[in-house]
Amino acid sequence: EFGTVQCFSDIPDTHWAFRYIQRLNEDGISSGYQDGTYRPMVIVNRAQMATYLSRAFLGM
Fold it and tell me: Is residue 18 within 8 Å of residue 5, measured between CB atoms?
């Protein structure tokens, strides 16, 4: 089950991707920024995407 507690100050529980972002955080795939934001509109670069994929599929 996806989490229901807000982890990021800029992602309200009404955001369409709230549950998916929470799950990425819970699974250690994507952790957001140190200031407690997730910044969903920031473009992800190739290195960041490679990191996400390796965490998701290889458990790294």
Answer: no
